[in-house]
Amino acid sequence: MNCGCYKEEEKTCIEIVPIFSSLTYEEKVEVAKITTDRTFEKGQMIYTAGDRGEKLYVIHKGKVKITRLSETGKEQVIRILGPGEFMGELSLFSSSSLTDNGEALDKTTVCIIDGEKLKELMKKYPAIAFKVLEELSKRLEKAENLIENLSLHGVEKRLAKTLLSMANGREELVLKMSKRDLASYMGMSQETLSRKLSYFQDMGLIKLIGHRRIILLDIAALEKIE
Fold first, then answer.
1. 72, 82, 109, 205: which could form a disulfide with 200 (CB 3.0–4.6 Å)?
2. Of the candidates 69, 78, 63, which has an alpha carbon nearest to the alpha carbon of residue 212?
3. Could you read off the pLDDT of 158-190 as tens digits, one per residue?
4. What is the DSSP track for 162-192?
5. C-beta neighbour count of 91 within 10 angstroms
6. How many CB atoms lie within 10 A of CB 35?
C-alpha cells in the first residue's frame, strides 16, 4: 500500500521517525510518495541476511528483533526496535547484501522507503542524511559497549550493567524482549540468566514481578558488582 496519502494530523511513520522530524509538511509529503507500508504477523521475517537491501524500513507499530546467526547457527540478538526507529540503513550506502535478520516480535506495521529515491531526497534535504548519520553514530557506540560488555565482564557484571542501562536512571524497567532474547543479547544461556536474576533477587538487589517487570532495589550495589 502506498503511503502517499500523508496527512499532517495523523501520526504516520514519517511523522514519528526522528530522521524526518525537521522536514516541513511539503517535504514529508515528498517522502510519503516514495513510501509503501506492509504489516507482518508475530514471528514473521521482515528481511533476512543475504537479501538485497536498498530500502529503509521504518517501524510504525509493533516491535522488531534484529539478529545475526553464527556459523554454527547460534542466534545473537543485536537490538530490539520499536515505533519510530528504522533498520536497513547500511544498505543505503553499500552495494552489499543485508547481514542481519529482522523479525516481527508483535504484529508490526513497517513503512518501506525506496533507497535510491531516498538518496535523491538526501541530496535535496541534507538534514535527512545528517539524522541518519547521527543514528548510526549512536548505534556504533551501543555496539562498542556491547562488545566491551561481552568480552571484558563476567556474567553478573554483564547482567547488572544491562539492567541499569535498560532502567536508564529509573528504579524499575519492563523488558522489551523475552528472557530468551535478553540472554542472547548478553551472550549467556537462558538458564544462566534465570539463575542470576534469582540470585540478584535473593541478595535484595532486585525484585522480579511477573515475566517482564523488574524493580531495582539497590542501584548502588548493582553499580559496584564486578
1. 205
2. 63
3. 899 899 989 989 999 999 889 999 998 888 889
4. HHHHHHTTSSEEE-SS-HHHHHHHTTS-HHH
5. 21
6. 23
